[in-house]
Amino acid sequence: MVQLFPPSGKAPVASLPPWLKRPIGKASELSTVQQVIKQRQIYTICEEGRCPNRGECYAQKTATFLLMGPICTRACAFCQVDKGHAPMPLDSQEPQKVAEAVQLLGLTYVVLTSVARDDLPDHGAGWFGATIAAITQLNPQTQIEVLTPDFWGGQSDVLAGATAQRQRVATIVQAKPACYNHNIETVRRLQAPVRRGAKYDRSLSVLQIVKELDSSIPTKSGLMLGHGETEAEIIEAMTDLRSVGCDRITLGQYLRPSLEHLPVQNYWTPAEFDRLGTMARALGFSHVRSGPLVRSSYHAGENV
What we know:
The structure is a single chain. The protein has 304 residues and is α/β, with parallel strands linked by helices. The protein contains ten helices and twelve strands. It has helices at 27-39, 45-48, 54-59, 94-105, 125-138, 158-173, 191-194, 200-213, 231-243, 270-283; strands spanning 2-3, 43-44, 62-67, 71-72, 82-83, 109-114, 143-147, 179-181, 219-225, 248-253, 266-267, 287-290. The strands form three sheets. Strands 2-3-6-7-8-9-10-12 form an eight-stranded mixed beta sheet. The chain has a two-stranded antiparallel ribbon with strand order 1-11. The chain has a two-stranded parallel ribbon with strand order 4-5. The chain is globular, with a radius of gyration of 19 Å.
C-alpha cells in the first residue's frame, strides 16, 4: 500500500502510481457511443463519471446508462456526478431512447444505474422497471444488470422508510434483472464522510431484500479503496456482504475526480488487490473483480 498521509503530516503525493495509468481506448469506439447518446440526449455513467475503462467496455459491447438525468440529490464526497436539489424533470421518452441506443450499438450486456432521486415519490424505482421493459422489448437477447440507489430518504419513521424501501426494490426485482447491484462503497467506519446521506446497514438491507424476494437473482456490491480503510475493515465489509447473500463483488481504487472531492489517502498495489480478491473468493463470492482500475460494471457481462 502506498500511503499518502504519513505520520509526519507531509503533503500527499500528487502523481499517480504507474499501475493506474492506461490508454483511454480507441477513438472510434468512444466517438460512436458518444454520438449515439448525445443525439438521444441520454447519459452514461461511463462519460459522466469519466470511467477509465470506458473504451475497453465499449469495445466489448457493454455500457452503463445513467437514468433520470445527470444531477444527483445526494452529495457523496467521492463521486464525479453533479449534485443539486433541483434535478432535471424526467424525460418521458428516456426508456425508449435507451432501448434504441442499445439496439444501435449492438450491446449484449447493459447496466442501468441512476442518480439518487429522493425528490420522486418512488425514488425512481418505477423508471428502472420501465427502462428494463423497453430494452427487453426491442432487444430480447440483451442481458440487463441494475445498479441502484438505496431507495431511502426523508422518512422520519424508520419502519415507514424500511417498508417503502422494500416496495421500491420489489418493483425492480419483479422486472427480473440479470443481476442486482448496490454498492456499499466503503467500510462501515468511513460511511459518514464518504457517503453523505447513505448508511451502511441500509445498503446491506437492499441486497438482503432482493434475496428475500427472489433468491435466483444474483446480487453484487463494490468498494472503492483508498479512503484510509484497513485490510481488516475490508474483510469485515466483505463478510457483512456475504451475510446477506451477496454473490458478487468488485474492489477498485478510488481516484479523486477533482480538488473538491475527498483526497486519496492511500493507493493499494496490484498485489494487494490480488490478495483481497483471493480472500473474497475464500469467503464464498462466486464472481470477484479486484484491481486498481476495477469499477462496478467492469467486465460485468462476463459474469453471466
